[in-house]
Amino acid sequence: MTKSSAAGPSPITYRDSGVDIDAGNALVKAIKPLASATARSGTLGTVGGFGGLFDLKAAGFNDPVLVAANDGVGTKLKIAIESGLHTTVGIDLVAMSVNDLIVQGAEPLFFLDYFSTGKLDTDTATDVIAGIADGCQQAGATLIGGETAEMPGLYAEGDYDLAGFAVGAAERGALLPTSDIHIGDVLIGLAASGVHSNGFSLVRRIVEEYRLAWNDPAPFSPDQNLASALLTPTRIYVKPILAALKATGGAGTAIKALAHITGGGLAENLPRVLPDTVAAHVDLAALPDLPVFRWLQTSAHLDDAEMLRTFNCGVGMVIVAAHAQAPAVLATLEKAGETASVIGEIITPTGTKSDAKGKGETWAVSTSGRLSNTL
Fold first, then answer.
1. How far apart are CA 97 and CA 93, in angstroms?
2. Strand-pair partners of 281
């Protein structure tokens, strides 16, 4: 490396270019105790190395199959950024990946995050990562590492983005869905905490159309401001479902399949776990009635079919359970703190298609993702 001349021009440093290495180091120091609090059996090492380590044998697995998932939070982040409320979007980030792991019968083991921004604000980043650590604790996963990228010129001032990566494991032969889903199996819906992390481009459009401010009282929850209400984090279903699997004999005994209801709603996600030989008969009247969805539907003038393919409509997870064991599954979930109810059953595909007309009608979500009236 060449030395600059004392009489030459002033050096242009990395900090002058917009990247503050010292701020990054300060962030790593701030989040180490947050990550340490997520430690679980199998955790090796600490945050800050070149890679995270995890011991599958120490975690109690004999012949594991690894399952991996990654996701983001989407434009829900814009509400956090514009309102200055950053403490819950980290929970969303974890939820979107670990809920995808549990649907395959996999126990989440560890999580890594990617935080990117134009100019690093240590306080904001710490709030976000504290939420990630919270989500990891809810899921029983360890925050094993991550990356903070400061990229001036790529993001508008104050903007940031998140990505998350989760790895889980299941014993060989214990993966979901099973191959014995058949007519008469029961659909159990687990209540959502709110909109979760999908459909927020439409949510934000509605807020803009009605000229609402983030600190206005939420039309569907007047005791909260709009930003706080919409930022209610995605529910993490991992521990209750693991408890239900354990209490009812493991994958395939009572629980045959799980569907995480994310982008595409019930119409797109439930068919992903069903064989072509069956359809899912869903009673719209049985879905939890969350005020936020009534507000969204009324404000955007949407019919049921469009709502069901855009939002979770009150159900964040669906379980396909054997008919005889469904009461035991429900009892275990409720004991674990979930609001769970029967929302339908597995039926013979109808091969028909029509438009949803109103709550209270009974519909089938076919394996092609179509909503079909079965009455």
1. 7
2. 345, 364
Mean pLDDT within 135-157: 94
In terms of DSSP bridges, do strands 107-117 and 142-150 run parallel, antiparallel, or are they unpaired? parallel
pTM summary value: 0.90
What are the CA-CA distances from residue 244 to residues 102, 241, 331 (Å)?
A: 12, 5, 9
Instruction: Please name which of 242, 373, 265, 248 lies closest in space to residue 318, comparing C-alpha atoms.
Output: 265
Rg of the chain over Cα atoms, rounded to whole angstroms, equals 23
Spatial distance between the Cα atoms of 142 and 295, rounded to a whole number of angstroms: 37
Beta strands in the chain, from DSSP E residues, in sequence order: 43-44, 53-54, 64-72, 107-117, 142-150, 160-171, 186-191, 217-218, 221-225, 255-260, 279-283, 315-321, 340-347, 362-365, 371-373
CA–centroid distance for 87 within its chain: 16
For residue range 77-122, list pLDDT tens digits in order: 999 999 999 999 999 999 999 999 999 999 999 999 999 999 999 9
| b/e burial code for range 36-64 (CB count within 10 A of at least 16 → b) | eebebebbeeebeeeebebeeeebebeeb
Tokens 């919270």 sit on residue: 134
Q: Cα separation of 87 and 130, whole Å? A: 7
- Encode pLDDT of 7-66 as tens digits: 677 787 667 566 667 777 888 788 788 888 999 999 987 776 788 889 999 999 999 999
What's residue 359's pLDDT? 42
Tokens found for residue 58: 């120490």
Q: Give bridge partners of residue 149 from the DSSP assignment.
A: 116
**Is there a contact between 208 and 138 (Cβ–Cβ < 8 Å)?**
no
- Before 11, cis peptide (omega within 30)? no
The number of beta carbons lying within 10 Å of the beta carbon of residue 29 is 11
Q: Residue 39 contacts by C-beta under 8 Å, 6 or more apart in sequence?
A: 142
